[in-house]
Specification:
heterodimer, A: 252 residues, alpha/beta, B: 475 residues, eleven-stranded mixed beta sheet, ten-stranded mixed beta sheet
């Protein structure tokens, strides 16, 4: 099937330590999946590997994006292919404004000789900022520099909305957010849900899933998915704790 | 900044033709002083240019000083020893007299301007253009209203001949021949460069601009610029250089003297992009009299070695001096730049902001000299040096020498070193930017707060040059 991200038997290590162990997942367009699990189980590693981070050693397996194997591709090629990673810890780029940054990212997607429509760009940027309740003065602030946790996450969502990716990987997007920010960010993600886009929400806590209702919930443990279900699974997990999964595994 | 302004500025950040600046034209030289440096060469230059005896004596004396002085390798890089003065041509000229209208400009020179990307509108915008094609000005033009106001904007040769009464009074006074070995060399063999005089009270609203380039292999370019702003006068001068790439080393050694008389203002802007084999050894200094203001904006990109420390001698009460500089050192390049502020009167103030970027094996050195003697009152200096390192092998050194004596003077010095981390690059690449684009964006961000003080077309030019340089630095 080509309209999905398909991860097959992925084994990944960092500095000779295995992190992902025979990990498999399918994320079709049009669906929102949640990936849950305790800290240190490999969730963020998965996000970085999909994005092509060079620090991780992929020993075996495949990652297909709409049928194209992206292993070995540069991070920018993967990005332009339509995979967006909302970072858990977005980087500060001093002196580079949000407006200039997003613009540069859009221009990197243009054909050579294609003209950039600046007025249209600003109209769209301002519209999306309004949706995310971001003050317009943010456009001229350096990206993530001096931003609060909530501002950084909103900035990630803004970039995603502007770059219009086929797949969005949200790495712990809820961490460091108060309830108001959580609602705004969730609202942003919900607005981007459509049949042509797949979204993977990586989270430690169930509370984000009160606002973003997933089609599927996967529970990750020790480098692979050990349980898959619907949104009720997340609630069960919240009620029983991760030890429940651990104990179930021990029984099995 | 208004929304409109932001959009206009951003609109201009476009992709570049990487081949620009990397070209050279076949040129037949009518006058050629030959290889090497001796009295015959000096006499040849004086004869060809039909200069007066005082100029001949000035040059011959300077040659003596040059021969006597040692290379400054006790403090500067040993790379200077690799300059072979015996294989350099010190004077080449096509022999044409400066032309005044655009129609008179030879087609190949026009083509050069075309390829350097000087837009048509900009030409109209320019108040006067003094472009140096090799040694002699091949094109110069001034708007009539400037001439009517008594503004002189000519080549240095023309200045010497036609305005000796002003020229001689200031020539070599700001930077004496024996100031350093390369100032002496320039004094011996100078040709080209600009001579500008702005009469009292005249404020030149549009920048005066010179584009020049080296266009002959093994050919040192020794232009000499002298700018005088008389009492209450104001002007901005812009200098930009792009050089074609050569197989062997080229020497560029200029001398620029600025004189700002009482309450005058001079702003001198340089955006320089020499090819990687050029030794660029330039002496730039200004004198600011009472209430006068001198600002150097200096951007150094390219060259094998650049040594340049623009200075202001704050000679009169209330004078102000400023140096804003950006240096970008890529693989195989060494940017040894800085500033000098010599306070000589009460209530004088100076400001130095230096930003350097070192990439790969590139090396940046900042040398600053601030001197405030103890008998002065209420003098101020602010110095900020920021360095950005990209890739681990980059090297940056800071040598600030601040001598402040006496009470009632204040000095402030801040220095920072930051790195573009692999994680920052990854973040930007995730958004679809190539590695080169990501580095270019972070470099532009680093210099952004300084560049916003630059005139629009120069900030655009600088962004282009940075993009070009970063594209080439990705393996």
């Amino acid at each position: 099937m080509s309209n999905q991200i398909e991860i097959k038997n992925l084994n990944v290590s960092i500095a000779d330590k295995p992190i992902l162990k025979d990990f498999s997942l399918e994320l079709p367009r049009g669906e929102v999946h949640a990936l849950m699990g305790p800290n240190g189980t490999g969730k963020s590693t998965l996000a970085k590997v999909i994005a092509g981070h060079e620090d991780y050693e992929v020993e075996s397996g495949e990652i297909l994006v709409d049928g194209t194997n992206i292993l070995g591709m540069e991070p920018d090629e993967i990005g332009r292919l339509g995979v967006f990673l909302a970072f858990q810890y977005p980087m500060e780029i001093p002196g580079v404004t949000i407006a200039n940054f997003i613009r540069a990212a859009l221009q990197a997607r243009q054909e050579e000789g294609e003209n950039f429509d600046a007025p249209a760009y600003y109209r769209e940027l301002y519209d999306k900022m309004d949706l995310l309740k971001m003050d317009r003065k943010f456009t001229s602030r350096s990206i993530n520099e001096g931003f609060s946790g909530g501002e950084k996450k909103r900035c990630e969502i803004l970039q995603m909305a502007m770059l219009n990716p086929t797949y969005g990987i949200m790495d712990e997007t809820d961490s460091g957010l108060d309830i108001d920010a959580l609602k705004i960010v969730s609202n942003g993600v919900n607005l981007m849900r459509n049949e042509n886009r797949g979204i993977l929400v990586i989270t430690h806590y169930q509370r984000l899933l009160d606002y973003i209702i997933p089609d599927k919930v996967h529970v990750m443990w020790d480098g692979k998915i050990v349980k898959t279900g619907d949104k009720e699974l997340a609630k069960e997990l919240e009620a029983k704790g991760y030890n429940w999964v651990k104990n179930e595994l021990a029984v099995a | 900044m208004s929304e409109q302004a932001i959009m206009t500025e951003e609109e201009t950040v476009t992709t570049i033709d990487t081949e620009k600046g990397n070209f050279s034209y076949d040129t037949n030289y009518e006058y050629d002083a030959g290889i090497g440096l001796n009295e015959d060469v000096i006499n040849y230059i004086v004869d060809v240019k039909d200069e007066d005896d005082w100029v001949r004596n000035f040059r011959l004396k300077a040659l003596n000083v040059f021969n006597r002085k040692d290379m400054p390798t006790h403090w500067a890089t040993k790379d200077l020893e690799n300059i072979d003065f015996d294989v350099i041509r010190y004077y080449l000229s096509k022999g044409q007299t400066p032309s005044r209208s655009w129609d008179d400009v030879p087609d190949e020179v026009k083509e050069t301007f075309e390829r350097l990307g000087i837009p048509e509108q900009e030409r109209k915008f320019l108040a006067g253009v003094e472009a140096q094609f090799d040694s002699e000005a091949s094109y110069s033009r001034m708007k009539e209203d400037l001439e009517k106001e008594g503004v002189i904007f000519v080549g240095s040769t023309e200045g010497l001949k036609e305005h000796p009464e002003i020229f001689r009074k200031f020539f070599g006074k700001v930077i004496p021949t024996n100031d350093n070995k390369f100032a002496a060399l320039n004094s011996a063999v100078f040709s080209g460069g600009s001579f500008i005089y702005v009469p009292p009270g005249v404020k030149v609203s549009q920048p005066l601009q010179a584009y020049f380039r080296i266009n002959a292999e093994n050919f040192g370019q020794f232009e000499r610029t002298l700018i005088i702003a008389d009492e209450g006068a104001e002007l901005t001068y812009m200098e930009g250089c792009t050089a074609p790439k050569f197989e062997t080393a080229t020497l560029h050694s200029a001398v620029v003297e600025l004189v700002a008389l009482k309450n005058a203002k001079i702003q001198y802007i340089t955006v320089q992009n020499w090819s990687n084999n050029v030794f660029n050894l330039v002496t730039k200094r200004a004198i600011a009299e009472e209430g006068a203001e001198v600002k150097w904006i200096d951007c150094n990109i390219g060259s094998r070695l650049t040594m340049k420390y623009p200075g202001v001698v704050l000679n009169g009460e209330g004078a102000r001096g400023e140096v804003l500089s950006i240096a970008l050192a890529n693989d195989g390049q060494h940017q040894d730049t800085g500033a000098k502020m010599i306070h000589r009167a009460n209530n004088t103030s100076s400001n130095i902001i230096s930003k350097s970027i070192s990439i790969g094996e590139g090396r940046s050195t900042y040398r600053g000299q601030v001197h405030i003697p103890d008998h002065l009152k209420n003098c101020k200096n602010n110095t900020e040096c920021d360095a950005l390192l990209i890739n681990t092998n980059s090297r940056t050194d800071t040598f600030p020498a601040i001598t402040v004596r006496g009470d009632g003077n204040s000095v402030q010095h801040e220095a920072s070193v930051s790195k573009v981390s692999a994680e920052q690059i990854f973040y930007m690449m995730q958004r679809g930017l190539s590695e080169g684009e990501a580095m270019s964006l972070s470099v532009n961000g680093f210099v952004n707060d300084l560049v916003k003080y630059f005139p629009m077309e120069y900030s655009v030019e600088l962004k282009r040059l940075i993009d070009l340089e970063m594209e080439g630095s990705v393996g």
